[in-house]
Amino acid sequence: MASVVSPVIFKEFCPLYYLLNAIPTKIQKGFRSIVVYLTALDTNGDYIAVGSSIGMLYLYCRHLNQMKKYNFEGKSESITFVKLLSCFDDLVAVGTASGRVAVFQLVSSLPGRNKQLRRFDVAGIHKSSITALAWSPNGMKLFSGDDRGKIVYSALDLDQGICNSSLVLEEPSSIVQLDYNQKVLLVSTLQRTLLFYTEEKSVKQVGTQPRK
């Protein structure tokens, strides 16, 4: 019996001018005019998150057609990675060129959801550019990787406002991708791909030959 083929839906792709027009192309810092570059991107059904070279995170709400801005306190530095998560609360993790990682717990208008913007910091473990971020589906775990091969696990307690972080793995080359599911962290580096079993703290390499 022939299988039923689902209909093909054609969509038109066009520049998101409503989004790009809400982000400045230059900012004034003293007497200097600084060009703003867009450096990181993530999307889901609710938000479009855009990181920039000036350390500003631009978060566009797709339902309300509103743009909000978030930044790190202190020195402005380029955002290198952003990762959204929609669970009971809306969360966005942000990594920078110097290794700073922050989590923003977003405000929601829905009953029983978070009513005050909160920020959690992954303090002092990464010392180089963040290259990958991965959430657990419930938002209680965040994994971050950097270009020196360090992977940090952060346990978040959103109710208590606590973030505890620790180094769980260190590779000899830059981390290029992280993905987490069912107590297993998929790690890809410039040299190899591996599975890190978070309960047993054991590593299983995918394949036998290193990447060229």
Automatic annotation (TrEMBL):
<dbReference type="GO" id="GO:0005737">
    <property type="term" value="C:cytoplasm"/>
</dbReference>
<protein>
    <submittedName>
        <fullName>TCPR2 protein</fullName>
    </submittedName>
</protein>
<dbReference type="GO" id="GO:0032527">
    <property type="term" value="P:protein exit from endoplasmic reticulum"/>
</dbReference>
<dbReference type="InterPro" id="IPR036322">
    <property type="entry name" value="WD40_repeat_dom_sf"/>
</dbReference>
<dbReference type="InterPro" id="IPR001680">
    <property type="entry name" value="WD40_rpt"/>
</dbReference>
<dbReference type="InterPro" id="IPR015943">
    <property type="entry name" value="WD40/YVTN_repeat-like_dom_sf"/>
</dbReference>
<dbReference type="Pfam" id="PF00400">
    <property type="entry name" value="WD40"/>
</dbReference>
